[in-house]
UniProtKB/TrEMBL annotation:
<feature type="binding site">
    <location>
        <position position="163"/>
    </location>
    <ligand>
        <name>S-adenosyl-L-methionine</name>
    </ligand>
</feature>
<dbReference type="GO" id="GO:0008173">
    <property type="term" value="F:RNA methyltransferase activity"/>
</dbReference>
<feature type="binding site">
    <location>
        <position position="180"/>
    </location>
    <ligand>
        <name>S-adenosyl-L-methionine</name>
    </ligand>
</feature>
<dbReference type="InterPro" id="IPR001678">
    <property type="entry name" value="MeTrfase_RsmB-F_NOP2_dom"/>
</dbReference>
<dbReference type="Pfam" id="PF01189">
    <property type="entry name" value="Methyltr_RsmB-F"/>
</dbReference>
<dbReference type="GO" id="GO:0003723">
    <property type="term" value="F:RNA binding"/>
</dbReference>
<keyword id="KW-0949">S-adenosyl-L-methionine</keyword>
<dbReference type="InterPro" id="IPR027391">
    <property type="entry name" value="Nol1_Nop2_Fmu_2"/>
</dbReference>
<feature type="binding site">
    <location>
        <begin position="112"/>
        <end position="118"/>
    </location>
    <ligand>
        <name>S-adenosyl-L-methionine</name>
    </ligand>
</feature>
<keyword id="KW-0489">Methyltransferase</keyword>
<feature type="active site" description="Nucleophile">
    <location>
        <position position="233"/>
    </location>
</feature>
<dbReference type="Pfam" id="PF17125">
    <property type="entry name" value="Methyltr_RsmF_N"/>
</dbReference>
<dbReference type="GO" id="GO:0001510">
    <property type="term" value="P:RNA methylation"/>
</dbReference>
<dbReference type="Pfam" id="PF13636">
    <property type="entry name" value="Methyltranf_PUA"/>
</dbReference>
<feature type="binding site">
    <location>
        <position position="136"/>
    </location>
    <ligand>
        <name>S-adenosyl-L-methionine</name>
    </ligand>
</feature>
<keyword id="KW-0963">Cytoplasm</keyword>
<keyword id="KW-0694">RNA-binding</keyword>
Length: 456
């Protein structure tokens, strides 16, 4: 397959001193598949995965010796881990190297977030007191992003569906912004050889222009001294180091250098003009796919967002409605999103009002359920929440019954002979999968049909 790598890409890479064209071609020819997962620290579980060594730059990340059918693992659907390419987990190393994991009240933006690899990572690595805004401009992809963050189970996340330009309405608001930009995708050639035919120099140019547009449109929302973590899965300088140069010259950013271990095989690179630092991942040097990342700090002065402008809204949530469903309800601010009652950590009430006033929210915090006028109808999101009251009626099931449940098939009533009638959690290896309603003569399966397992 090495022969089929685009000549124009290889020719350009050959001019780089850090590039070994033979080793690069050989690794593509071999086409090895590297599979890795990142565990959810909030949902420790007994996994059947063939975990081998940890990923050196991410302590929650593991290589697998074998790729299972993830769809047939209930613990995958329950959000105990995320299947993520190893190189991109480097973002966790960067967050920790910048000390943002220990900092309280960080406001983080993941601007190009679907399907949610970097967002679930940020949500785990940042402190619980931090707020993550996870944005995706494409509507259908924003839904997948919501599903993945719901699985992850944390309440300190807001998913938005906006064009990057909308973020200029929040000048000086964020402490850190991750821009994992849409790119020409050459870094994925080994994993997805089909992408090779799509590659062209014209597309690299188009992507490079779009990356500048995205960054120019959104950069005002970053505070002075706030961090920009820019990444792509492209090898092209036009989308990587040249963008770093442009950020330094046009938008007053400075390059931040982070120490890394030589043994990891990551290549430090510098931009042609301003010598801005970046990190290149070549698949013949690291156990992972092609990736580029650079860290910058905003040096231009940006007025810090003024919180005084916002008036607090009166809550229309019925008093006590979430009390028996949520662990420590007093820790949360409750609010209505459509017909549903949602929670976010109390300290985030004001931020939520600010975000709501300028962005289009797809999901905010955790959806606890719908208020019927008399009682709460629990949401699927609550079942997967890390803040559900674990005293709620629940039934542990075996693998076959768990898969039946996830396929939204009929559930055997005998499995629930020891539970009370009413709402009941279905649990596999101690981890919640979703809700059933136990009636005297049958079990109603409330697994959402949009995410049920199909054809397997
Ligand atoms: N960060 C994601 C993750 O780790 O799972 C992957 C992001 S992917 C590389 C780039 C994302 O940018 C895609 O979800 C794509 O829909 C979105 N995108 C495409 N065009 C865009 C644009 N003009 N502005 C902002 N985002 C865009």
């Amino acid at each position: 397959m090495g022969n089929f790598l685009p000549n124009e890409l290889i020719e350009r890479l050959r001019s780089r001193t850090d590039f070994d064209s033979e080793a690069f071609a050989e690794i593509h020819e071999r086409g090895d598949k590297v599979t890795s997962v990142r565990l959810n620290p909030a949902k420790p579980a007994k996994l059947d995965l063939a975990l081998s060594e940890t990923i050196p730059w991410c302590k929650e990340g593991y290589y697998l010796t074998d790729r299972p059918v993830f769809t047939l693992d209930p613990l995958y659907h329950a959000g105990t881990y995320y299947v993520q390419e190893a190189s991109s987990m480097f973002v966790s190393y960067i967050i920790r190297a910048l000390g943002l994991d220990h900092k309280e009240d960080v406001r983080a933006l993941d601007l190009c977030a679907a399907p949610g690899g970097k967002s679930t990572l940020l949500n785990s690595v940042l402190n619980n007191s931090s707020l993550l805004i996870s944005n995706e401009v494409i509507k259908s992809r924003a839904l997948i992003l919501v599903d993945n963050l719901v699985r992850w189970g944390n309440p300190n996340v807001v998913v938005t569906n906006n064009d990057p330009s909308a973020f200029s309405r929040l000048p000086g608001y964020f402490d850190v912004m991750v821009v994992d930009a849409p790119c020409s995708g050459s870094g994925m050639f080994r994993k997805d050889p089909g992408a090779i035919d799509e590659w062209s120099l014209a597309n690299v140019k188009l992507c490079s222009d779009r990356q500048r547009r995205i960054l120019a449109d959104a950069q005002a929302c970053l505070k002075t001294d706030g961090y920009l973590i820019y990444s792509t899965c492209s090898y092209s300088e036009e989308e990587n180091e040249d963008i770093v140069d442009w950020l330094i010259t046009t938008h007053g950013f400075e390059s931040i250098s982070v120490d890394i271990e030589d043994s990891w095989g990551i290549t430090k690179t510098r931009s042609r003009g301003k010598q801005g630092e970046g990190y290149r991942f070549y698949p013949h040097q690291v156990k992972g796919e092609g990736f580029f990342l650079s860290v910058l700090r905003k040096k231009t002065s940006e007025e810090t967002f003024s919180r005084r402008k916002i008036k607090k809204e009166k809550s229309d949530v019925p008093k006590g409605s979430i009390d028996k469903w949520v662990k420590d309800p007093s820790l949360f601010y409750t609010f209505m999103q459509g017909d549903n009652i949602h929670i976010v950590p109390k300290e985030m009430e004001e931020d939520l009002a600010i975000i709501r006033s300028v962005l289009y929210l797809k999901n905010a915090g955790t959806n606890v359920g719908k208020w019927s006028g008399r009682e709460l109808i629990p949401a699927h999101d609550l079942a997967l929440s890390n803040h559900i009251n674990m005293g709620i009626e629940a039934q542990e099931v075996d693998l076959d019954s768990a898969l039946n449940f996830l396929r939204k098939e009929t559930i055997d009533i005998d499995l629930f002979s020891n539970t009370k009638n009413g709402w009941c959690l279905v649990r596999y290896r101690g981890i919640n999968l979703g809700w059933v309603k136990v009636l005297s003569n049958r079990i109603n399966n409330y697994y959402p049909k949009e995410i049920r397992i199909m054809n397997l």
